[in-house]
Structures are given as structure tokens and as C-alpha cells.
Design a protein that fits this description.
The complex is a heterodimer of chains A (418) and B (396). Chain A is α/β, with parallel strands linked by helices and 418 residues long. Helix content of chain A is 39%, strand content 16%. Classes of the chains: A alpha/beta (418), B alpha/beta (396). At the A-B interface, strand 11, helix 9, strand 12 and helix 10 of A face helix 12 and helix 17 of B.
Amino acid sequence: MRILMFGWEFPPHMSGGLGTACFGMTKALVERGHHILFVLPSASEETCDSHVELLSASRIPLSEDAERGPLTGLDLHRIRSSLRPYPSPSGHRQPPPRRSGGRSYVDLTGQYGPDLLSEVIRYGNVAGAVGAGKAFDVIHAHDWMSVFAGLRARSSSGKPLVLHIHALEYDRSGENINRDIFEIERWGMTQADAVVAVSHYTKGRIVELYGIPAEKIFVVHNAVSRSEAQSSLQVVKIPVRKIVLFLGRITFQKGPDYFVAAAAKLLRRIPDLTFVMAGSGDMMIQMVERVAELGIGQHFHFTGFLRGEDVERMFAMSDLYVMPSVSEPFGISPLEAMMYDVPVILSKSSGVAEILRHAPQVDFWDVDGMAEKMAALLSDPDLARQVVEDCRIEMQRIHWDRAAEELESIYHRLIRSG
Amino acid sequence: MPSLCLYFEVHQPRRLRHFTVFDIGRAQPYEDEVQNRQILDKVAEKCYLPANAVILDLIRRHDGRFRIAYSLTGVILEQLETRRPDVLKSFQELAGTGCVEFLNETYYHSLCSLYSPREFEAQVMLHRKKIRELFGQEAVTFRNTELLHSNDLAAKAAAMGYEVVLAEGTERVLGCRSPNFVYRPAGAGIKILLRNYRLSDDVAFRFSNRQWREYPLTPAKFAHWIHQDADAQVINLFMDYETFGEHQWADSGIFTFLRQMPAELLRHPGFAFHTPSEVADRHEPAGILDVPDAVSWADVERDLTAWRGNAMQGDALTSLYGMEKDVRRAKSRKLLRDWRLLQTSDHFYYMCTKWFEDGDVHKYFNPYESPYDAYINYMNILDDFSWKLNRKKATA
């Protein structure tokens, strides 16, 4: 089967879990004999040896009808001038279409900047050209950024569209949602032929908050890829010091403030602990200041955004991983932590909690409960080992091949009914 | 006869290297040797060597009538000893003229006067010894880090045998009085000289500012302003030595200004150059100066907020000085020295978040991208240091 995929992240062009998930998923699909054309907003040349055929939207000429603007049937209000669904240090320009050889191209950065919405619209515009120029059987779009692209490709090709929801605006922003993004998500899910949710937790929220019929939503859990490089990593742990890790974007969605609060509580009881907050995000400065106010900076460290091997080293050095997310559609990091025999504590508001049922789970707001469970796992090595072993057994059931198999059956169903 | 009192502060911090979580507990060095070496070389070539040459020439030309004072921190002296002995030699040459007074301060350019009387005394004694060894002078004038001053500090300095102490001439302590007199701190038998910040900053901050109403500042104009106050006891011009060639670049004409200024000032027969201790010998205090809360020469606030104005600085300082007992118990020269190097006030200055009027100055001197980075990096190092300390405790 030939699959046309639209996504905002793909290694090495990525900032978070979306890219990791797309990588694992496509690899398994390719291994099952499928061909994937993956369209990124912007990709450099060096990624050409990927298992998918990577295409940069910035290098696709605009089709004749493409400059008309966003698709009709959707009413966007643009109530906020600045859009930051994911924070990014880099700003955004809005360049005019670039002309070359009598054709027009749009320059896309593929970052999450303040001008993301217009990038998303321009990205959608060029996708029409791909829909008309390539052969494929099904369109698979990831998250709201790809909604326009997916729908354009469908209208120019007539092929069915799967919209894969990795995160909702409600997850990222809580109650203070951006209406435009919410509308794009709802419109995309209404229009799509099928919706894939990364967890039952997310499926429930799609039904409840977006009013999408449950029948067209399919749950496909994420998995984790175990690459050979990871298993060879040797890290000498610092004796005596135990490290508790938070790894993820430092944003509202991930609940970093609850982690800091729990750390301060625990340090009063066990002073010789080290907490590490790895990642960056729009709440980072606030968290640094909070740590300073609590007077725990000597035991609470920030790493900034970690890449590649540093992520692995960080997991390997840690004794406990905590995911205190306010709302986590899936949450792939705990699975990565498990691969380094690091026990995890999960937020109940997460998809991964559906899979790792033996991992201790907490309400993100229950700081005392979180500190309690941290203390228990840190002070009882037998308990920590037991959690790791139980979770490992559960993890054996999750692999990308199973997710790929489930996606395959969704594709078949759509092609048959189409 | 009004005295003209020139004093220059000479200091370069030992900047810390990028120290991550992965370095903690792994015996990694704290300092960025390469950067420190590069900066020292740059400042030596742009400021110390050319400025010292000008000063030496002025002293010779004016035949003892041009007199100045320096304070070199222990931190820069060590760096000069090991890396730029030529620069150290040029300072020693100035000492040999008999026209230069060398002051005392805390060896590590630290804020220990605010945290530990014991550590304060130790660092001042270390510096006194160093100055005696290198310049053959027994200092009688004390200047605290960044001109931090209070009644308490004056009493400490007096108890340690100093006769003069330097401070900022801010309205907060002077009220409507003039900084151009010698004062006596409340409760201490010592004299205090106050920086005339307007005239000092005309040179140190505004000299090359083309937006400034008085630009360009000529030696004649500057002398004219000073000569206005013929009833003064002393005009104190205190500034960083790096003003010459580093903060104000050579092409701004700052060296020409320095070369010509003394002659212009001496054109008025009523004015003469004196070093701080000479000023104290000549003039009796005109009044009492009561400073219950600390003042400094930094920023518009002239208080402690450049180093201790936010939670990050508070956390870093409290954690650092909280280790004092353990450091002393460890009885390790290496650990004591590491702890002291971490006290250098610049580390806390980099964490300052006052981005408004003084933001530019902070940014200019800041090797970090943001004050948050400075805090994060410092606390990683502090954790590593406490880890070393605990290991020593465990093996002792």
C-alpha cells in the first residue's frame, strides 16, 4: 500500500514526542511492506536515507489554485495575534512565495513559532500539489497542523483521509484553549474518514469535548523503538545520590509545577536527593524562579533541551521517572525510561497509564500523594525492581508492529468502503 | 586646599565553565581556563598595559604631584602572577614611584562581609598579606567589594586597624550634604571617603556617549567642573580601571583624556592630588555618616540588589555560605579555596534580573545568555562542590 503522510515532525526535524511516534510507526509500516511518502514543512537534504520517502513542502511548487487561501467551510477568528501551541525559541517570518523557474514555492520553517497558523495554512496550500502529482492509496495526517494539508490532498485525489490525534488543544492549554486551533481540530475530525486516537483517554475527550461520534474513532496505542545504540550505552551512576527525573516540554500540559512542589516536599524528608528537570518550554523561567524561591536549587537541576545521546544518558543516570502531566494523550517517555530499568510514576490523566497498569499512578494535582509514592520507590529498592519487572512484562505487548497492524486494518476498511 | 583623590579598581573574575548535570560528581573543573586566559590577555593589551604606561608617564612628568590609588583583587593578582607577569611587573613599577597607594579588600572580591565575620576577616588578612608581598605596602585604606558599606562594616574595618574606608556618595546616606568632604561613620573611629558618583560616572559611563548633552568631555571642561567646588575637602573619583580602553575604547579618546586631565586639574593652584590615606591625614571629618543599611556603587539603586535582589541570588548565596561549617571541618586547603573562588561576587551579579536602566551594563558583563542560565550553571557547580565536601566528610 502507498501511504501519503503529513506531519510536522520527523527525526531529525523534531522537538518532541510527535516525531518519535511518527518515526516508530512509519518504520513498522515499511517493514510490513508499505511505502510511505512523508511530507514535512521543511526538511534538509541529509535525511534522504530515511526508511520513508521524505518530501519538504518548501520544495513543492504551488499548484494553480493553491494561493486562494485556506479551505472554505471553516470560520477562523484569529482572536489572538500570537499563536504558540508549542513554544519555540525561534521567531517566524512570513515571506512571500519564492519564484524559481517560473513556479512559486513557499518557504516553511517547520518550527513552532508565533506565526504557526499561517505556516499551517501555507503548508496546507502546497499539499494540493502532492495530492495531484503522486500515486497513493490512503492519506494519513498527524495532528491539527496537518489538517489543511490532508484535506487538500483528499479533495484533489479522492483518497480516504485518516486523521491521527497525538494531542488536542485541550491537552496543551487546559481551559485556556486557542479557539482557532480547536476549530481546526474539530473541523478536521468531522471531515476525516477516520480518526485515530493514541489512547482511550484521548478518545473519550474527543467524544466529550469535540462531539465526534465514537464509531469513527479508533484507538491505536503508541509503542517505543529499541535501537541497538541504546542498549550499548553505559553510564556510571554517581553513588549515594538518587536522581528523580522529569523529562519533557516545560509547559502547562506537562505539569512541571507539580513536580517542583513535590520535590520541595520530599527534600524536607530526604535531603540527599537530586531532582532533574530536562527540557525547555514557556514555563521554564517560572520553574527556575520557583525552585530558587523554595531554596532547593542545589538539589534541583535544569538541563535545557536534551538531544540524542544526552537523553539516553539522562534516563540511564536516573533512579525514578515522574510524568506529572495535566493531560497526556499518550506519553511515550515513560516507556523510554522503562528501557533503562528506571521505575516510573504516571499521571492518571494519561494514555500510557492504560498500558503500564503496574506503574504507580497519581492525580497530577495531588502533590502529597506524588511525594509519598516517590519516597516509597526511592527508599525501597525491591519495590522499585518489582515495578520495573511488572512494567516490562506489560511492555512486551506493546510494539510498533502491533500499532502498524491496527493502522493497516483501518486503511483497508476505508479503502473497501470508499 | 581641596584634594583630588583618584582610585581605580582592578578585577577580573575567574569565569565558570559550562557545567551540566552530567558533570556533577565527576571531578570536572569549574573554570573556563581558555576564556579566562583570552579575556585576561584582551584586557591586559587594551587596558592594563597602555593605562599603566600612561600613569607611569604622568607620575614622572608631574614630579610627585600626580598621585593615585589602586585596589587589585586577589583573584586578578593570582591570574597575573601565573599568566601575565609582565602586567604585574608594570603595577610593581608604579608602586616603586612612591606616588601610588595600594588598598585592601576581600581577597576573593566576595560578599562575605554580609554573611560571615570570620570569613571576612580571613579574606581581608589574605589580601593584606598579598599586597605586602607584591607591593611592599601595609595598607591603611580599606574598600569593600563593590563599595559595599554600612556602619557595621566601618566598625569591622576600624577593628582590623584600617584608618580610612571608601564608600559610595549616594543621597541615601548623605541627604542634602556634599560627598566632597571627609566623614566619620556612626560608631567607628575611622574616616570615610565618598565617591562623587556624578563626576566619576561622567568618565566611567558617559565619556563616549554621543547622546550625552556634554559630549565630548574634554579635560578642560572636566577640570572646570571640579574647580567649581573650591570649598571642598576632597573630590573622590573612583572607578573601574577597565574604564580605560575596555569599557571606553581607545578610539573614544579616553587615553588622551587620561593623559591631559591631571595637568588641567593642577592648573588651579588650590587643588592637589592625594591618595586616600593622605586625604585622611589632611582633613578632619566634617560630619557623622549614619549608614544602618548597606549601600554600594552598583546600579541606580546603590544597594545590594545587583547581587542579592532576587530569589536565585538568595538561594545561591544562602546555599554557598551555608556550607561554611562543613568546609572548615573538612580541613582541606583545596576545598577551602574552591569554596572561596565560588564566592566571587560576579557569579551572583550574572544572576541579576533587573533588566531596566542597568540591564545593558549587566548584559555587557555577562558571559551567560540569561541570568537563569547563570543560576542553573552555578547551582550545578555548587551541587558538585557539596558532593566533594560530603565525600571528604565520609572518608574523614
